[in-house]
């Protein structure tokens, strides 16, 4: 129960916070400062993932002592608690990557808000169901039993789909930022080479 509550709040708080900060940096009046950094698009996304991972680690470390106290109960060992925590950490980071992808999309604010709400509900429900099922397997069969299920035919397929989706969303987030940065450089080059107009404010 305690791990489910931790996962529920973590999969809501951390992705929304990380995605909202990226969304604010992608606003039209702040985009110049966002692309003025010498960092590449990949390093920007990975840096934001690292920042979200530290926040997730802080949240999990606050609740880890209470979870490890459940080892005083019969049938719960330290390895199972550690496995449940690691599983939740990985799933929260997957939710953060989905939030980054939605935050990178260049759409109207209202449309992006609707997409973000749908993505939050669908991703949250999917990850919570996966977490509850996997944590149940860990607590019933232990960490070794969970690895046996994960290395089976269906487990490898589901794990491969999960990793592939995360990698695709990560690559698409980088591509969107890199494409927007190149478009910004192209627009600045056009402004420098374009002839002067009587009223620049109306021109731009």
Summarize the structure in words.
This protein has 204 residues and is mainly alpha-helical. Helix content is 84%, strand content 0%. The chain is elongated and about 55 Å long.
Q: What does the secondary structure layout of this molecule look like, with pairings?
A:
Layout lengths: L1 H24 L5 H5 L5 H28 L9 H27 L4 H42 L2 H41 L6 H4 L1
Observed structural traits:
elongated, mainly alpha, disordered C terminus, 84% helix, 204 residues
Compact summary:
Helices cover 84% and strands 0% of the residues.
The helix tally amounts to: 7
Mean pLDDT figure: 79
Which of globular, elongated, flat, extended, rod-shaped describes the shape? elongated
Order of helices and strands: HHHHHHH
Radius of gyration computed on alpha carbons? 21 Å
Main pleated-sheet profile: none
* Low-confidence sequence ranges: 182-191, 193-204
Number of strands: 0
- Which structural class should the secondary elements be placed in? mainly alpha
Give the DSSP E fraction (strand runs of 2 or more residues): under 5%
As a percent range, the share of helical residues equals: over 70%
